[in-house]
Write a structure and sequence with these properties.
There is one protein chain. By secondary structure, the protein is mainly alpha-helical. 51% of the residues lie in helices and 6% in strands. It folds into 2 domains: 47 residues, no CATH class; 105 residues, Arc Repressor Mutant, subunit A (Orthogonal Bundle). It has a 3-stranded antiparallel beta sheet. Helix 2 crosses helix 3 and helix 5 crosses helix 8. The chain is elongated, with a radius of gyration of 29 Å.
């Protein structure tokens, strides 16, 4: 377990000394490491050392969010080649990472906040690809959590979530081709 540095502060050192004296007097022998940590934490007004450590963690400012990853333009360019000049997906890619980017492009074309019947989703997907397997696209989008469907499969809706960094580059490349 990594060693963490915790600031220890008490308002009254005299009360600390009395609390330590009383706690050490109740022990049969010299205190172990954990017993001593608990004695010090109780002297500072905590239930035990875990309470002290949790209080310290709660007082720490939240960590800054990690910077967004830079888009992989080469990956986006490879996947963008799978779209024709009109923006239609010409074939289903073999590589999973290209499949994912293509699905994100199709996801971005689905209107947000609307509920669609299965037939409507199929029609949308049919208009965006040329290899004749809208069911594959629909199923993959549901499995990835890009689309939500009711248990009976009658209604579908787009699931809002942060896209991968490459989506912006993909959209720019597919729009430039159109």
């Amino acid at each position: 377990m990594p060693r963490s540095h915790l600031a220890y502060e008490v308002a009254d050192i005299s009360a600390l000394a009395r609390s330590l004296r009383d706690g050490l007097g109740k022990l049969e022998g010299p205190p172990g490491h954990v017993q001593l940590l608990n004695l010090l934490a109780r002297a500072a007004g905590f239930r035990n050392f875990q309470h002290f450590r949790a209080d310290h963690a709660a007082r720490q400012p939240p960590e800054a969010p990690a910077p967004a990853p830079a888009p992989d333009h080469a990956r986006a360019a490879k996947a963008a080649r799978l779209f024709d000049a009109g923006g239609g997906l010409t074939r289903w890619p073999k590589k999973r990472n290209q499949q994912l980017l293509c699905l994100w492009v199709l996801w971005s074309r689905i209107p947000a906040g609307e509920v669609f019947a299965e037939r409507q989703v199929n029609e949308l997907l049919n208009g965006w690809h040329h290899f004749g397997d809208y069911a594959l696209l629909r199923r993959e989008m549901v499995d990835l959590g890009l689309l939500r469907r009711t248990p009976d499969g009658r209604e579908y809706s787009r699931v809002e979530q942060p896209p991968p960094a490459e989506l912006g580059a993909m959209l720019a490349l597919t729009r430039a081709a159109a």
